[in-house]
Please model this.
Amino acid sequence: MTPSFNILGLAAAVLIVAPLLSASPTGVPGVEVVQTRKITAWDGCSKSNKAKLEKDFKNAAELAQYAHDHMKMTDKAWTHYFRAKDEKNVKNLWDAVAKYEANDYSFTVRCAAKDDADCKVHGGSSFAATDPKPEEKGKPRELKVCPKYFTDEATKQSMDAKKYEPGKRGSWCKLAPYKFKDFSVGGLVLLHEITHLDAVGIKAKLPNMKQPAQAGSGASQYVDEGHSPRDTIEPWQNAESTAAAALEKWVMDKCKYDDIEV
Model:
């Protein structure tokens, strides 16, 4: 029987529009495996969309790896989202996304049609949605990417769209004033979505949380901001925070910023 990992949540893992990050690849060992080993099938994706997603999955792993290796509990990128006691769970989650091990988890990717029900949630503002239920008989769950992902300013660029050159015009490192949303790329959305996978929670050895009555179907997933009162979850359970903190750490280090306005 396939183990399951139950976290506080609702029935559908639909992404809330979030600010994202960008950068040039650093060649961190293992970042390519999200694309090459964990995705077992591509459904409905054009050649160009697949190429874009392959790049962004690598970016997602790179962000997770960098945050795992370099984040300190005193960093603003940490304190904006987490407490010191969240360190083990959050870092285990980043590590689970970034590194590949034998018999590791896998998932499938679908490029959804514009009339897909999950993509029409929140007035059609969703970038992606992930099936968070436990795997059945080892069958990988699906990560669905909406058409908006490929056209919206927040997600259409990948990390190699610009260089990280502090103070230089045309680089990712903007001069003040700047906000979190100014660094958006697709890779942050995918990092967010990967953490919805039940199998990732199992690999990260996160606590098995009992769901409250209002959670609905009992699906295993992280709660997106806005889906449930913040006081019903632990900070490390919020997929939005896990991805955003990784983004913020990357940008602040690469651009030598003291802080980023959210």
About this structure: Confidence is low (pLDDT under 50) at residues 1-33, 210-231. The chain has one domain: 13-255. Residues 47-70 form the longest helix (24 residues).
